[in-house]
Amino acid sequence: MSIEMVSLKYRNTFALPVNVEHLALVDKIELMLQVWQQTQKYQMPLLVLGEGSNVLFLEDFAGTVMLNQFKGIDIREDVNTWHLHISSGENWHDLVCYTLQAGIAGLENLALIPGLVGGAAVQNIGAYGIELQNVCEYVDLLELFTGAINRIPVADCGFGYRESIFKHAFQNGYIILALGLCLSKKWRPMLEYEAFSHLDSATVTPTQIFNFVCAKRKMNLPDPRKIGNAGSFFKNPLVSEKKYESLISQYPRMPHYPQLCGKFKLAAGWLIDQCELKGYRLGGAAVHGQQALVLVNADNATGQEIVALARHVRNTVASKFDVWLEPEVRFIGVMGELNGVEVLS
Ligand code: FAD
Ligand code: EPU
Q1: What is the pLDDT of residues 16-72, one digit of tens each?
Q2: Mean pLDDT of the 316-338 span
Q3: What does the pLDDT look like over 234-250, one tens digit per residue?
Q4: Secondary structure of the chain as H, E, C letters
Q5: What is the pLDDT of residues 272-304, one digit of tens each?
Q6: Is residue 232 flagged as an active site residue?
Q7: Candidates 293, 316, 325: which one to mutate for ligand 2, based on the most atoms within 8 Å of Cβ?
Q8: Which end of the chain is less crowded, N or C, counting CB atoms within 10 A of the terminal residue's CB?
Q9: Is ligand 2 within 6 A of the CB of residue 131?
Q10: At what angle do helices 92-101 and 206-220 cross, to 10 degrees?
Q11: With a 6 A CB cut-off, is 122 part of the ligand 1 pocket?
Q12: Does the global pTM surpass 0.90?
């Protein structure tokens, strides 16, 4: 373990120049527990960080950031299934590549999502018609105040659209140690997403889907190594049938996705785009010019400038559509996580 005072500029994909009092790189459970005990002793806040691809630092963090470097991949198989046990410090996209190279299919739709395996479970990552919960068997969770490791079966993980129990009851004082994934040997392509309509389910291969997803993502989303961002800044909003009907009568071309619960998911990017906010700039922060759902650090932005821009976007969308967007990105203040909706209200 090494502990030092450092900048987090290269540890968050918004590339915000924030500082942290202590940074601890941990690759063992004993070290995680030691760092936790130190933060308890000095009553300092603790933040677990993967690759920082879903966080917005509003200011310097007055505590310890624990950088997860817990590695390891185990693969077991039975007649019909591959069972993978992956430590939470593994890189998600490297895992997708590793499985495909090993002849294990099923993760290809989730290619090129930045971040580590632990963050993937917190956020229940999703793209191109699948979510982590579709392939997850369990999550192993370290309870820092007792040192106990509990296995949470997928049914108890509270997974939903960019939701999990790890954002709520199991947030403070817990670290995700590993995920269990379960992938069928009888692979079936997941081609429900409309962008796949040109692919033939009878002949398509996992690698073709992987290549298509990677190409599409490279085209649609800005590369954080070139321009700071955290992917979609807001979630796609869910609205009632009544609200959907009123909007679709005014905007017949509005993208919409009926949900099993009877509600309708709308495309936040489309709503923002309709407000003509693409490329809109506020200080060093901007709405991306091609994908309106992505806010970017265009020129040495501060966290507060990104917040001011997000507030402007949210208020503008609400006054045009009467739909209030909720941030997908996690807001981090000086003492820990803040409620993003409250910060923007
Ligand atoms: P971090 O940002 O480091 O952490 C996120 C949160 O999880 C924090 O609150 C942190 O405290 C907590 N956390 C992290 N690791 C642990 C752990 N081991 N135990 C407990 N808590 C932990 N997301 C999607 O779902 N779909 C996409 O298509 C997608 N595309 C993206 C594209 C770009 C260009 C970018 C920059 C982001 C995108 N994202 C997407 C968002 C992001 O990649 C995911 O949310 C990712 O899973 C975050 O992982 P991370 O390691 O960077 O987590
Ligand atoms: N659209 C516009 N203008 C824009 C952006 C989008 O009109 O500026 C329209 C598109 O034409 C399309 C619709 O909005 O009709 C949806 O856009 P897109 O398919 O690009 O997907 P998205 O809703 O913007 C979601 C996820 C992404 C995920 C993609 C692919 C959320 C919040 N975002 O984006 O996840 O990669 O679908 O599945 O659910 C992330 O979570 O960070 C992320 C990037």
Answers
A1: 999 999 999 999 999 999 999 999 999 999 999 999 999 999 999 999 999 999 999
A2: 98
A3: 999 999 999 999 999 99
A4: CCEEEEECHHHCCCCCCCEEEEEEEECCHHHHHHHHHHHHHCCCCEEEECCCCCEEECCCEEEEEEEECCCCEEEEECCCEEEEEEECCCEHHHHHHHHHHCCCCCCHHHCCCCCEHHHHHHHCCEECCEEHHHCEEEEEEEECCCCCEEEEEHHHCCCECCECHHHCCCCCCEEEEEEEEEEECCCCCCCCCHHHCCCCCCCCCHHHHHHHHHHHHHHHCCCCCCCEEEEECECCCEECHHHHHHHHHHCCCCCEEECCCCCEEECHHHHHHHCCCCCCEECCEEECCCCCCEEEECCCCCHHHHHHHHHHHHHHHHHHHCCCCCECCEEEECCEEECHHHHHC
A5: 999 999 999 999 999 999 999 999 999 999 999
A6: yes
A7: 293
A8: C
A9: no
A10: 150
A11: yes
A12: yes
Return the closest-CA partner of residue 132 out of 100, 159, 156, 166: 159
Catalytic hit among 51, 90, 108, 328: 328
